[in-house]
Design goal:
This protein is α+β, with helices and mostly antiparallel strands. It has helices at about 15-25, 30-35, 40-50, 75-80, 85-125, 130-145, 170-175, 175-190; strands at about 55-60, 70-75, 150, 160, 190-195, 205-215. The protein is built from eight helices and six strands.
């Protein structure tokens, strides 16, 4: 399975297939055979694996003469494997806010963003038990690139693990992101959350303890971070 960002120099045939599809929008098996220099059986095997991973899809094209053909193209999921300027944009925006309003301005901007996330995700958590909420919050973070898991502790509390930080480089410069993370979880779960492990302090994961018996402190107004 392809998991690393792709470059112009593919390391294997799987990556080469993705790059050619990116450059050409859609291709047939025959066209891929020509550019890759491998058999149609080999091409189909690679396409089958990429389809299983959700990176490639196909459509049937009927022609006025002859047999219909299948044309293969990348899925939206595959687009995330290619270089993106989103990281640079985030740095530029926070740098611009910092130059104008300092760390306070950065905190206010990130707080606005987290308030928006609370409004977006709270409907997914309605009428769930705390354990179900923890599971759903872990799923939400995994959907946004944090590779998140959780477990229930013997005393009834929960622990949420993030094996990967989707904004690691950004957080190295703007630690306000990390400061707000437990608060965001608190507002989603409705109980106190404390950080127990921290990648930026050389821990292998970021870890959050969910205190099942302690309600989250309400700050300023309902839903405000």
């Amino acid at each position: 399975m392809v998991t690393q960002p792709l470059t112009e120099n593919p390391e294997n045939t799987h990556e080469a297939v993705l790059l050619y599809l990116k450059r050409n929008s859609e291709m047939t098996v025959a066209e891929l055979c020509d550019v890759l220099g491998i058999t149609s059986m080999a091409v189909r095997r690679h396409l089958s694996g990429l389809q299983k991973d959700g990176l490639v899809e196909c459509r049937l094209v009927r022609q006025s003469r002859g047999r219909p053909t299948y044309r293969y193209r990348l899925t939206a999921k595959a687009e995330s494997l290619f270089p993106s300027g989103m990281g640079n944009l985030a740095f530029d925006l926070l740098d611009a806010v910092y130059q104008t309003s300092g760390h306070k301005g950065v905190m206010e901007l990130l707080s606005l963003r987290d308030n928006w996330l609370v409004r977006k995700f709270l409907p997914r958590l309605e009428k769930l038990t705390l354990e179900q909420k923890v599971e759903e919050v872990a799923k939400i973070y995994s959907e946004t690139g944090y590779m998140t898991s959780w477990e229930k502790l013997a005393n009834g509390d929960f622990f949420i693990y993030q094996q990967h930080c989707a904004v690691h480089h950004l957080a190295e410069q703007y630690r306000q992101i990390c400061v707000l993370e437990p608060k965001l979880m608190q507002h989603l779960l409705g109980c106190r959350v404390s950080r127990e492990k921290y990648m930026l302090k050389s821990d292998p994961v970021c870890g959050y303890l969910v205190h099942a018996g302690e309600l989250a402190a309400q700050e300023h107004s309902a839903g405000a971070i």
